[in-house]
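I hope you will forgive my troubling you with a question about protein structure. The record follows directly beneath this note:
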Amino acid sequence: FPQIDISNCESLNEAWDGCTGLTSFPVLDVSNTTTVSRAWRGCTGLTGQFPALDFSSLLEMDYAWENCTSITSFATMNTPELLWAVAAFLNCTSLTCLPALNTTSVINNGTDGLFGGTPSLLRPDASEQAALTGAGGDDWTNPGSCP
């Protein structure tokens, strides 16, 4: 996947949705991006660790990585402004680890199904997942590192 300038893109909704042949993703400037809903949904060819992307302006990531069955971890997950994260990691069956996640700004039921279908997920563990998806959310950081 080539380097492209998306530094001024506010929305990456459905940008790579269903791109099953996408096997890697570069580090791109997404610091101005506010929504990535369904951006990588169904990208079953993405394997290993998802790259370090700056999600500091991100507001919405509903279904962003749904059915990305071969991603095992994320290099970063900086989400201080996040409002919606419905089913973001749904059916990411190989996902074992997140480095951090902030859901303290999420509104209403904005974390419904966030970790659904992630049987391999070790961090956050079950109690940490409950805090992240519960009322008020949580600003969670993994005390270890992701493989």
Observations:
- The mean pLDDT is 95.
- DSSP finds one helix and four strands in the chain.
